[in-house]
Target: SDR family oxidoreductase
Amino acid sequence: MSLSRIFSVAGKVAFVTGAAQGLGRAMAEALAENGARVLLFDRDEAALAETVARLAPAEVLAHAGDVTRPADQHAAVSRMLGLWGRLDIAVANAGISDADPVPLHEMSEDAWTRVIDVNIAGTFHTCRASLRPMVVQGAGKLITVASMWGLAAPAGLFPRPAYAASKGAVVNLTRELALEYAAHNIQVNALCPGFFRTPTRPRSEAAAKAMTDYTPMGRLAHTDEIKGSLLYLASSASDFVTGTTLVVDGGVLAR
Model:
């Protein structure tokens, strides 16, 4: 089989949460630009519309919803199945970080709960809704988006207790699901980004400098630099890869 076919997602049906902007938009672009039909899921309807316009004439569909509400996710998956008949690739990308970089004893309960709800419960709802049709099909690619901070602690640079806890949970949930669904021919892997520059992050040039200085490659990644890793996990190139973490961090975890 040629490399172009091994890495192809042409004709596949994909579901991407947090797809309106940032890395989620880049991942949706990678799939749509390479021939997949993609349902874009996000709370931000205006940004979803911008993403759809950017991806024209690719076959994409916007669906507004909140990952913390299971009914929203089931509605999105049901809509896909009704239109396209299957679900081949699911990317559980939606996530947030701690609003303020404070140590745990200074963090409010509401701030902690919000991060945990989006990053853990939201990932659970996405995975559950996506796995059901994949089990029926006997095939699928489920990609969780964790973080390099799911494998190491960010406090050496800035405190992010809720983010670190939630992304560590996503990494281990990925391992668990990989084992649970291996016999169903469903590969489950985690994508663990490092520091990427998006339109809204970093929030300040001081933060950007701190991140750049912390990264051995001496720069922040561009959003498009997530696309190759995403396509590897979404395509047949990773058919014998499950339960792993693919880190894209410019060398941070090699420290």
